[in-house]
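User: Hey, my collaborator sent me this sequence without any context and asked if I could get a structure. I don't really work with proteins. Can you help?
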Amino acid sequence: MNVFGIVGWKNSGKTSLVVKLVKTLAGRNYRVSTLKHAHHSFELDKPGKDSFRHRKAGASEVLIASSRRWALIHESNRDLEPSPTELLAKLAPADIVLIEGFKSFNCPKLEARRQACRGPGLSGRMPGIVAIASDHPVADCDLPVFDLDAVEDIADFIEQYCGLQA
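Assistant: No problem. I've predicted the 3D structure and written it out in structure-token form, which is a compact way to encode the shape of the chain:
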């Protein structure tokens, strides 16, 4: 399975870029999956719904299924979050998995940068960054640099980097 990460500081454009890349790559007839890192507890089901009530009652896993989709909610009793490797093993086969976040996971990554959230660049500090997408000029860089909105060019780069063939 091909895995390619999109990393960057908060509000750097990661999610918007991943959404556009999924649409573009899926439009090229690839089966695309995503893995998103969350820094906090999150809810998939809503208070009052049966699945929420099952989980709150103490179910360690709740599987919700319909004719159109299914979702597995797994409650973790450990303090450590699962590794990206553990999570990737739970996904069905895909042509490519785009990972949003998980900065330190060892896979090829593109760093998203925005002028408005100018933290220090991650390239050169994080393993695996092979390209940058930015909304401002990037100086002193040996890596390919793309405009943050050049989604087709970024998709071409990922396609070539991962050796994908539609």
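In plain terms: The mean pLDDT is 90. You can pass these tokens on to your collaborator as they are.
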